[in-house]
Amino acid sequence: MDVVDVNVMVLLKAAVMGIVEGLTEFLPISSTGHLILTGTLLGLTDEKAKVFDIAIQTGAILAVVIVYWQRLAQVVAGLGSDPRARRFVLNVLIGFLPAALVGLVAYKAIKAHLFNAPTVATAFIVGAFIILWVEKVAKPTPRIAEVDDMTPLDALKVGLVQCLGMIPGTSRSGATIIGGMLLGLSRKAATDFSFFLAIPTLVGAGAYSLYKEWGRLAWADAPMFAVGLVFSFLAAWVCVRWLLRYIASHSFVPFAWYRIAFGVIVLVTAYFGIVDWHA
């Protein structure tokens, strides 16, 4: 295989990873878990690949900015005069703070010890049963209909729940949406706030990862990262628009069953040696 073939294969793998990231980032099914497992199948398991996984989240975030650009523009325009705009920004920053602090303290430990198939599969299945419990048993009654109705304390609680999403396979969006519903947010408010909270959280994680691992990267890696970002953006744009329509009349139960099936497949294939998830 010549150099051109190798480069094409790298870019194809980057495109696949970008699509996986974009389709899974905002659904309650764990983008990190899917990226770890997809990367294992594609042979992308080194330290550079882990940086790539985090960096391409920026493409998915751009999709959120595009979908919500009118709301975000109103917030920016109203910062000087609109109390609701200032409270919105304050709530997002408060919600972001817990994950930022935990990430700074535990970044290395999480990357070294939790980026593996058993952790991902277990988190997938446990998270699924939590979703089923919330949707089928708890059925929390919403007290907050819209994001603008949230208080700083509400934002802090959702931010603390978001920290659970650092466990690969748990799902940051799943933790914030389901956690938000348990805390009294409507399905729409929890989903919207999860999207808004993703902007500083994922951009911050990507910037921090690039800063810490810059020495491992070279300009030759730029095409791979660019392709991953582009495909992540496109897939996330489609997914976010679909999810906003979906939640209007559906629950998250189907995602729970998907998580259980996916987690069981990973555990079974690992146990019988069908796939070497530790490669």
Amount of beta strand: under 5%
Instruction: Look at the helices and sheets and give the structural class.
Output: mainly alpha
Give me the count of strands: 0
Helix count?
A: 12
H/E element string? HHHHHHHHHHHH
Work out the count of structural domains: 1
Ends apart, CA distance between termini: 22 Å
Multimeric status of the protein: single chain
Task: Walk me through the structure.
There is one protein chain. This protein has one domain (3-271). The two termini are 22 Å apart. Helix 6 (83-113) runs parallel beside helix 8. With 279 residues, the protein is an all-alpha fold. The protein contains 12 helices and no strands. It has helices at residues 3-24, 31-42, 47-55, 57-67, 69-78, 83-113, 117-138, 152-162, 172-182, 187-213, 222-246, 253-271.
Write the layout of secondary structure elements.
Blueprint: H1 3-24, H2 31-42, H3 47-55, H4 57-67, H5 69-78, H6 83-113, H7 117-138, H8 152-162, H9 172-182, H10 187-213, H11 222-246, H12 253-271
Helix pairs in contact: 1-2, 1-11, 2-3, 2-7, 3-10, 4-10, 4-11, 5-6, 6-8, 6-10, 7-9, 7-12, 8-9, 9-10
The gist of it:
It contains 12 helices and no strands. By secondary structure, the chain is mostly helical. It has one domain.
Keywords, separated by commas or semicolons:
279 residues, mainly alpha, 75% helix, 0% strand
